[in-house]
Structures are given as C-alpha cells and as structure tokens.
Amino acid sequence: MRAAFLAALAALRDYATRVAAHADPDVPGSEAVSAALLAPLAAWESRPAGSNGGATDVPEAPSAPAAPPVEAPPEPEEEPLADPA
Looking at the whole model, is its pTM more than 0.70? Predict the structure, then answer.
C-alpha cells in the first residue's frame, strides 16, 4: 500500500510541475489554463495524519473546475483561383 501511495504522490508532483511549466506570460491564456488545471490540487484539503476520515464511506467525486474558453485561431481567407485562360 505504501508503494502505491508513493507512486501516486510522485505522479501528482510530476503533473503539477508539468502544468506549472506550461504557464507562459507571453502565450495568451496559458496561465489561465494552468491555473484551471491546478485548481483541484490547490483546493484539496487533506485529513489529519492518523484519521481514517470515514474510510468506509465512498467519497463524492469533486466537480471539475470551469476551464476558461479557448478561442480558435481565425481561419485564413481563401484567395480566389486565378483564371487559367
């Protein structure tokens, strides 16, 4: 059980590091996306050590944070085809 816990902890650290690394002030929206992806971890409240916290109860699934809208790049304008004549 301890090995699985440590593996999950390492995976969460890796995820947080990768998401935080993608926040770039020069890329519009990247910081907002990173913040939205890290919001569940920032809001996480852990139980005190040694408490079972109702381990027999099934926890509710957390609701996903609303991600900021992502705008699609503008489509290039089509140039009219040249008349082959």
Answer: no
| Secondary structure percentages of the chain, helix, strand, coil, to 5 | 40, 0, 60
Structure tokens at 50: 């040694």
Q: Rounded to an integer, what distance in angstroms lies between the CA atom of residue 11 and that of residue 5? A: 10
Beta strand residue intervals within the chain, DSSP E: none
47, 53 Cβ separation under 8 angstroms? yes
**pLDDT of 54 over the 80 cut:** no
Q: Tell me, what amino acid is at 42?
A: A
Q: What angle do CA 53, 10, 43 make, to 5 degrees?
A: 50
